[in-house]
Write a structure and sequence with these properties.
The protein is of the alpha/beta class. The protein has 12 helices and 17 strands. The chain has 2 domains: about 35-175, 2-Layer Sandwich (Endonuclease, Chain A); about 195-345, Endonuclease Chain A (Endonuclease, Chain A). About 35% of the residues lie in helices and about 20% in strands. Helix 6 packs parallel to helix 7 (about 225-235). The longest helix has 19 residues, at about 155-175. It is globular and about 60 Å long. The model is unreliable at about 1-20 and about 340-355 (pLDDT under 50).
């Protein structure tokens, strides 16, 4: 009898079955992150950034690709003079970072170039204050930013502390000096997963492969081979797959576009709404079955998944999915069909995409 029971347990675990009474699968975790945590207005992102810096009492930790914003630089110096510990990691290949680093070091603020391997860029963009509040950005802190649609996500709880632990690991990798973090933090588990390195690519694949109804993605570019295959497979199993991409992909990744189109994936090119100054998007987000999201600053490309130092968030938040799905619906309505679509498709709106 014991042998039979052990055999049943082994088969159940290998099959991924739940051991809950009645054989019901365990419910997937759901994040309580609200829709308001997703910021797509440039003024709102800046206001939240300034607010977090001003409220900081102990620490401000920052990673950026490029930092040339004079106002934010002056605000950090002010906080450092008030006794707040400030640490920054920047990309070593961007010449715009050099005067920023000189100014920071002249004010005794600890700043380092992230140690890039050959051909690698430091493209993590985030800020943490006092360990418990964070912003993850799609864009840089620039003095004269180009006309881009930006995205930032405000984090608290366990996700913010996970970001702090990630920064501490990057800091130690850069300087060999360990940062002090509390061993145990009593923060609510918001069920948000921080993905870096190979985990970023695998998380994207897992979400695509787990979708059963629809995938709505808005991205700088989608060109990674296994991601293209996964999107095509999702369409072939009956998922509605819609993509909004930056216009330059027509020239930069024509083969990827043709493969997706041939498989029945619907594609539109980003085109700003009337009155909006953005010419392109500066992020990637995807909504899966209206329940979960992946948010990143990078394209779904080989460089993002294999070469660069990148970060992405996997967020099982229905409220967040609803917020970003609404943005997708608006952008789909304004987008330019690719290739040119029949009139009935152009007039069909986005009812299927938001059902």
């Amino acid at each position: 009898m014991k042998r039979i029971l052990l055999l049943w347990l082994a088969v159940s675990l290998l099959a991924g079955c739940s051991l809950l009474p009645g054989g019901e699968p365990a419910a997937a975790p759901v994040s309580a992150l609200p829709g308001g945590a997703f910021l797509t207005d440039e003024a709102a992102i800046r206001a939240e950034t300034v607010s977090l810096i001003r409220q900081a009492r102990t620490t401000i930790w920052i990673e950026q690709f490029i930092f040339s914003d004079a106002e934010l630089l002056a605000l950090l110096i002010e906080k450092a003079q008030a006794g707040v510990e400030i640490r920054l990691l920047l990309d070593q290949w961007q010449t715009a970072n050099q005067p920023t680093i000189e100014t920071l070091k002249n004010n005794n603020i600890s700043v380092q170039y992230y140690p890039a391997q050959k051909g690698q860029y430091q493209r993590v963009r985030c800020m943490l204050t006092d360990g418990g509040a964070a912003l993850v950005y799609s864009s840089d802190w620039l003095e004269n930013p180009p006309p881009l649609r930006r995205l930032a996500v405000r984090l608290e709880g366990e996700a913010a502390w996970e970001l702090a632990r990630n920064f501490a690991a990057d800091w130690k990798y850069t300087t060999t000096l360990a940062l002090e973090l509390p061993p145990d933090v009593e923060a609510p588990d918001d069920h948000i997963t921080l993905n870096t390195g190979a985990a970023l690519r695998q998380s994207v694949l897992n979400q695509i492969e787990g979708a059963s109804r629809e995938i709505l993605a808005e991205s700088i570019q989608i060109s990674q081979e296994d991601v293209l295959n996964a999107l095509i497979a999702a369409r072939q199993r009956g998922c509605l797959v819609r993509l909004i991409l930056n216009p330059d992909v027509v020239d930069s990744t024509p083969n990827s576009l043709e493969r997706l189109r041939a498989a029945g994936v619907e594609i539109r090119l980003f085109r700003a709404a009337a009155g909006e100054t953005a010419e392109t998007i500066d992020y990637t987000f995807a909504v899966f079955d209206g329940q979960s999201l992946i948010v990143a600053a990078s394209a779904w490309s080989h460089a993002a998944f294999v070469i660069n130092h990148e970060i992405a968030l996997t967020i099982p938040s229905p409220a967040g999915a609803e917020k970003m799905q609404a943005l997708f619906a608006s952008d789909w309505e304004n987008g330019a069909p690719w290739p040119s679509a029949p009139p009935d498709e152009q007039q069909s709106g986005v009812s299927r995409a938001v059902r």
